[in-house]
Amino acid sequence: MIDGKQLWKQRMIAHMAEVRRYGRYMFNDHLLLVLFISIGVGAVFYKRAVDELTLFPYAIVASLLIAFAVTQGGVRTLVKEADAVFLLPVERRLRPYFWRAAGYSFFLHLYVSLIVFVVLLPLHVKFSTQPLSVVVMAIVLLTGWNTFVQWQEESRIGRDRFHTFVRFLVNVTLFYFLLLKQYVWMLVPLLFMVIISLYVERKGKENAIQWEQLLADERKRMQAFYRLAHAFVDVPYIKHTVKKRTWLRFFFRLLDRFHMRPYTYLYARTFFRAGDYFGLFVRLTAIGSVFIFTLPRGVEWFALLCAYATALQLLSIRSYHRGHPILFLYPLSPAEAHRSFMRVLLSIGMSQALIFAMVAYIAHGVFVMLWTFFIVFVCYVAVMFYVGKKREAD
């Protein structure tokens, strides 16, 4: 007989062992030292920048960031491919298993949401009069509600982007009115929360568990973790995905006309179409640009942090096609592949440096623009130098 509690315990032990296994390679002494220094320097400049602020739309910014944190995510079920066959007949006995999966996901997302709020804490102390205990309680309740709705949608109803957008708007509205202490207006998003909860619960009872959807979601989350770990160590379980990016067809045609070297062309298309490299670049660049435009001082160090995070995760492009048989048809040396990767990484770094520099020029002037460009450029050069030295050591 299947015991849901024991099954979850076994899956959780195996999952944590795998996370610790790759975590040893990812969070080595050098990376931890850089992270501690970056966080320390960033915290000092961030505190000074907040102290100099006189006007800041804190309620709007905090509502958007907290709402994004609690809306995103999903329920980690740790299901495996064979579960759709072997566990399907005993689906009704797996309630303890899925309850523990929902609880684990709740605390995982709550941890991320609280980290976001801790980052916003200096702004909250200066620009808001709402007690911290009330805000933390609201984050806990919003995380719990979103976890419940996400579980019903992912496991039984089916994921819908429109539903996710509605939840995001409800989270933004509720948190915004809470920060402004407009408690009467909070009744409107609360009413929507009740209606959405009743709707997803009723629809969920009409459907059985969607095993294919759960497997696809779990596979996607594990592949995201493996891609991150792949930047530090070879991961045998990684599965590559390719996205069409039809809106970039014009750019791809330009690449065809430039008659690039084979590896340069390959790495460029890999950046835009494979995995989530391009999306990662866009997200980190957008986050950095927003803070560069908003903060009065220390923006160049925040740009450095975003550039380092981007370059670090783009390093796995170099080994993305490793072992593919078509590469053996190229009459080119590994040194040529290395030089091509360096060209692509430098081009990406120059693009990000120019974007940060233009935002810094609009918000802070010429000197900050030049300093920001120089720091981001040096960051990418340092990462490339590290890659070159590592290759020589190998």
UniProtKB/TrEMBL annotation:
InterPro entries: EcsB_ABC (IPR010288)
Classification via Pfam families: EcsB
Key words of the record: Membrane, Transmembrane, Transmembrane helix
Signal peptide: none
Gene Ontology CC: one annotated term: membrane
Transmembrane parts of this sequence: 30-49, 55-76, 97-120, 132-149, 161-177, 183-200, 277-295, 301-320, 341-362, 368-388
Protein name: Putative ABC-type exoprotein transport system, permease component
Organism per entry: Anoxybacillus ayderensis
Organism placement in taxonomy: Bacteria, Bacillati, Bacillota, Bacilli, Bacillales
